[in-house]
Design brief:
Blueprint (H helix, E strand, L loop, with lengths): L10 H10 L6 H9 L20 E3 L2 E3 L2 H11 L6 E5 L5 H10 L4 E6 L2 H17 L12 E4 L12 E6 L8 H5 L2 E11 L2 E9 L2 E9 L29 H23 L21 E7 L2 E7 L18 H4 L12 H8 L4 H7 L6
Parallel strand pairs: 3-4, 3-6, 4-5, 6-7
Antiparallel strand pairs: 1-2, 7-8, 8-9, 10-11
Helix pairs in contact: 2-4, 7-9
Length: about 350
Amino acid sequence: MGGAVSAGEDNDELVDNLKEAQYIRTAPVEQAFRAIDRADYYLEEFKENAYKDLAWKHGNIHLSAPCIYSEVMEALDLQPGLSFLNLGSGTGYLSSMVGLILGPFGVNHGVELHSDVIEYAKQKLDFFIRTSDSFDKFDFCEPSFVTGNCLEISPDCSQYDRVYCGAGVQKEHEEYMKSLLKVGGILVMPLEEKLTKITRTGPSAWETKKILAVSFAPLVQPCHSESGKSRLVQLPPLAVRSLQDLARIAIRGAIKKVIRQETASGSGHGLKGTPRAKRRRVRRRRMETIVFLDKEVFASRISSPSDDNSCEDLEEEPRREEDRAPLEAKPAPPVNFLREKVLSLPLPDPLKYYLLYYREK
């Protein structure tokens, strides 16, 4: 599934293409997509396909196409402090991007059927926290994953502000999915071959909007135990942050504010990275939906949201002088100013490293 936009040479160019095709429409979603490199969630031998607008599957590991994730992120209308439940959380790629928007006081939970995929997601999450400079540019709501069938969530679990299901929902499970949602909340899921947004406007009132034609593998039906009873999935408890953790969040926030003030006054540098070179070409294509079922392949074609009945390439943008510069003239990697500020503070080293979440440089 995918093929709505041209492939990018890197993560930023993929995001540029998604913006050009109007799949990414808001600044928070764009920032989240740029902050997390999609290639980091691929196995090494498949990374050459990471910036194509295509779904990827290897064993139980699966990533939806970037155009699908961008439509989902936009439809969820994420805000800081909300609670989010990801049904079929997979690699954790979507949950991590959502966590960048929810901030430190949100709730970010995922349910995944396969235990090996849970381990893969935890490894990728740990890699992002330890090594990515993007982690220091955001206040992150770290996702928590549990293993189980999302159709067997305990009925006494809390409801959520935002819910996404990453597998095709059968009509008979629609009410079950709605029951996971708070009043005022938003549910996004593939329902009857359409990516569907459902808003709970009251205890028994709903608004439904069809977003995009899609083809997802259906939800796996629960397997009952020998006693005939289902295995209920217990979601993570709503954790209360410690005073120590709250202090770390507040200190990091204060340092970021100082950096922004220095930037505004021209006396320092901000948290933003080095400006990217402008790409030269964008190519629009109609979306191609490809469905794999056992050994057979079914393909259909639908229009992307930005289609204007034209498949012509956009005009090539004028090259800037830096585009013609030799490779050795490329700007140096951006500096992590938050890290530099923390390390320069007159504090004991253990406290500095705690403020940095013990992250690698």
